[in-house]
Amino acid sequence: MNFSIKILFISVLFLFSCEDFFYGEEDLCGVPGGDNKCLDECGVPNGTGISAGECDCNGNILGCDGECGSGQEYDICGVCNGLEINILNCQCDNPIEVQDCLGECGGSAIIDDCGVCNGNNVSCTGCMILGSDNYSSSHTIPDNENCFVSYNSTIQPILDNNCVVCHGSSGGLNLSSYDLLMIGGDNGVGVTPGNSQQSILIEKLMPNPSFGDQMDYLTESMINKISLWIDFGALDN
Ligand code: HEC
């Protein structure tokens, strides 16, 4: 082998073994000197990229707030990250609208004072005047016409238990029956129907009556009952 052939041979060998040196290392796709163009957007060689329905390479999905992987979802009302509290809203097309009590979206029907949807406040069965025998905390009526205090079952027992011992037989005011009470005592008729403020009976139960002593034998709620009974007309009911 002459010298120039030897040089050529060594050169070819050198070239062959130092392929990397000249062409660069294999890229991630196995292409010597390649530029990784085979990587998908997630960096996976020959991968298919982000899967349909996902928003990143970690399998996350888009939250309703627009943030990838936030985990926020629409509630039953269509509100992002909502609390599903107002089902009435959800049944309306417009989330701002509310169903009225008749089920109409954006309607104006409301539950009346008697608890009746779209009612006219006249169907109540109770009354809201505290101390009335038919007091009801769940029903209201605009006036007191349906409220009552029964003389026989409420007022007479109060008088029997607290007053009749002195006002039963010995002349003057007799409180043992409706008829006798309405006759009154030495100072006249004690009851002015419809006006407890103008009734001697009530005046004598309060401090500093205009004559004689306070009849200090009743609780405040008992006095209120007698006042109401008078204000409701002092009926023999
Ligand atoms: C311990 C006895 C006694 C008791 C109990 C009593 N009274 Fe009297 N009451 C009197 C006497 C005595 C008078 C008359 C003197 C006066 O007016 O203070 C009177 C007067 C009255 C008068 C005025 C009558 C009038 O026309 O002059 C009224 C009204 C009255 N009492 C209501 C009541 C009521 C209601 C009760 C029960 C809550 C009651 N009294 C309990 C003794 C009593």
What key attributes describe this structure?
237 residues, 3 domains, 24% helix, binds heme C, mainly alpha
Structure characterization notes:
The protein folds into 3 domains: 1-34; 49-147, no CATH class; 148-237, no CATH class. The protein has 237 residues and is mostly helical. It contains 7 helices and no strands. The chain is rod-shaped and about 165 Å long. The model has no long low-confidence stretch (mean pLDDT 84). The chain has helices spanning 3-17, 19-23, 87-90, 151-162, 178-183, 200-203, 220-231. Helix 4 (151-162) crosses helix 7 (220-231). Bound molecules: heme C. The site of heme C (HEC) has 21 residues, from helix 6.
Rg result: 47 Å
- What is the element string, with H for helices and E for strands? HHHHHHH
Q: Tally the beta strands.
A: 0
Indicate the structural class: mainly alpha
Distance separating the two termini = 144 Å
Bound compounds, each kind once, are: heme C
Shape annotation: rod-shaped
Number of domains: 3
Q: How would you sum up the major sheet?
A: none
The amount of helix comes to: 10-25%
Question: How confident overall, as mean pLDDT?
Answer: 84
Low-confidence stretches: none
Q: Estimate the strand proportion.
A: under 5%
Count every helix, treating DSSP H or I runs of 4 or more residues as helices.
7
Question: What is the strand and helix layout of this fold?
Answer:
Layout lengths: L2 H15 L1 H5 L63 H4 L60 H12 L15 H6 L16 H4 L16 H12 L6
Helix pairs in contact: 4-7
The structure holds heme C.
The site of heme C has 21 residues, from helix 6.
